[in-house]
Amino acid sequence: MNPKVFKTLEYTKIISQLTGFAGSVLAKERCENLLPSCDLFEIQAAQRETSDAVTRLCQKGSVSFQGITDIRGSLKRLEVGSIISPEELIRCCRVLEICARVKNYGRRDPSDETRDSLDGRFEALQPLANVAAEIRRCLPSEEEISDNASPGLLKVRRAMKTINDKIHAQLLSMVNGSTRTYLQDAVVTMRNGRYCIPVKAEHKSQVPGMIHDQSSTGSTLFVEPMAVIKLNNDLRELELKEEKEIEAILANLSALLAENLEALHEDIALLTDLDFIFARAQLSRSYNGSEPIFNEKGWINIKKGRHPLLDKKAAVPIDIHLGKDFRLLIITGPNTGGKTVSLKTVGLFTLMGQAGLHIPAFDRSELSVFHDVFADIGDEQSIEQSLSTFSSHMKNIVSILEKADEKSLVLFDELCAGTDPTEGAALAISVLSSLHNRGICTMATTHYSELKVYALTTPGVENGCCEFNVETLRPTYRLLIGIPGKSNAFAISGKLGLPPEIIEDAKSRLTEQDESFEDLLSDLEHSRVTIEKEQEELQRYKEEIKSLKAQLEQKTEKLNDSRDRILREANEKARKILQEAKDYADETIKTFNKYGKDGMNAKAMEQERAKLREKMSSVEKDLALKNQKKTKKTLTAKDLKIGDSVKVLTLNLNGTVSTLPNAKGDLFVQMGILRSQVNIKDLEKIDETVISAPGLNRTGSGKIRMSKSASVGTEINLLGKTVDEALSELDKYLDDAYIAHIPQVRIVHGKGTGALRKAVHNYLRRLKTVDNYRLGEFGEGDAGVTIVEFKK
Question: Which residue pairs, CB below 8 angstroms and at least 24 apart, start in 267-270?
Fold first, then answer.
């Protein structure tokens, strides 16, 4: 495939992003070298792998491949029988540990029978847990070999520690003893791997031993005392033994790895593959990508595609289809309207899809497999080659015409621009006609009106435009296929402040044909906007109807369920009642037969008949409809008078009318000790209640009808009355209150001189119906009120 197009369509930037998601060096190399494929099966397999990796990321989260290093050089040395270093052994061990972690990530639940394209790779991984554990046991880190790596090493290091302790003890006794005066410093140091003490040069004869070094000034000699020479020699021998032991340990570990070279080669290849695949999946998730459907017919159908290098929140999705109904698409419209982005989106999606990468578009988007992609986009001016912009573009066009075939995708941006418009338009039409006649799938952007006419009059060629809002002077970036675009130069110039007379003069210089063509485009644009608005409104209505239909179906389903449930319950209840009646009838028949045999005890049989009648009445009540409501008569103000008995429906309480309704229908009703304002609509007139009271005149049946006293309130006001008037009124009030079964009343007599309060209290003492009385408390009226409680 043409390598120049990778940079032109910014495919290299996508590869750079992909490389950032890879965890290992080997996978990063795979990402950097990723090229589009032309094999349909290979593309589909790569796309399936990416999709399966995305599914696993969504279900299980991410998996890390960090720490995988390139151990192929170490494996090569193992093949020839070499012993590798501790650092190389640790790197191999890390690879095996990562292999175990990745294999565990890919393991499925035993109950999960689904499989995908990655299961085979996960299952083929061989963590070699025993080998990794042995390396870790012997080598805790790259710089350290464990004492327990072998019994011989442990024995040697213990002996070395013992000799070290002896040497230090001997030297410290000399440093801190009689030799101290001959030393430059009271320290023990090492020279050439042997323990020494710093002796002053003038006292070297006082400290017998071997001189290993001296200071730069010559004033200090580093002497190994004769007392520790043998110990140092023994220590050196042990160090040589330690080196041999370590070499043997490394040889054993290298041999252990060499036995599993094939598994190690396969593991490193599989881990690199998985790292590369999951890097593609993470890239897909970063821009909400989806797997495209590929064909080899040259059909492209991108649904709501976004350029992957644009901000996914700000980018406007575009719909592009090409190749099925037409093989040549000509896009027109104003500058900065999104023409070039649309062109690059198609080209970049093709390269990404054929490389096994998902594209940022809706599901079921279609792409075609092209063997080559050609793009002439951007300013190709070359100072070194003395080429102008037009010459440089024309050189590219010539190259494209030579190399392109029916399996190529060709993209032109501002085709044949940078020269005389008339000649440029003619050249552009000829170039596009040549490609169209050869059946090459082509997209081109232009400002030439002649190309719009060419698209309208040529079969297999379609117009497209990038929408522009003239009111706001901003592009909407929507790509509209089937509609030629306007440059909107006059409208934009007017909005930016160009004098109207200049714009009118410019319009007058247009030919009548050009002007009528622009008017036609304006009418088409206006019609399109109107149709779109109507379609949106229709869609809204459809959604509303769909929602209402769903609600109605839901309600109908609930009603049907309720009806079925009620019928089931009713049938079950009827069945039980009938069964009980049958059982009781059988029992009764047995009883009658029994009495018949025993001589027909008439009294006993009469009792059984009475029980049967009661049972039948009970069954009838159970089967009867209990919830039949009486027709409620609407009351008017004329229907009520003070003292009438009524029922307050909302409170479900009976009471008596205290006041007549006002204009709004509101009135006061006394319900026991509760006096409340209600509306006449909330009342239902009832028959007068018949009550019994001790000590009252009775009728022949021992009952009297409730009189007006039932409407008495819970309070009487005696303010402003003389003592005689007050006591007379109080006497009648207390009688009425007692008859109405009011348990407690309130007498308001005021404070004043206290004469009325004293007369009331004297009167209350003599009444047999009064249980007790007291002055009001704070909040009840204090000394101006007396609270009276009647006997029960």
Answer: 267/95, 267/96, 267/99, 267/125, 267/126, 267/127, 267/128, 268/26, 268/68, 268/71, 268/72, 268/75, 268/95, 270/121, 270/124, 270/125
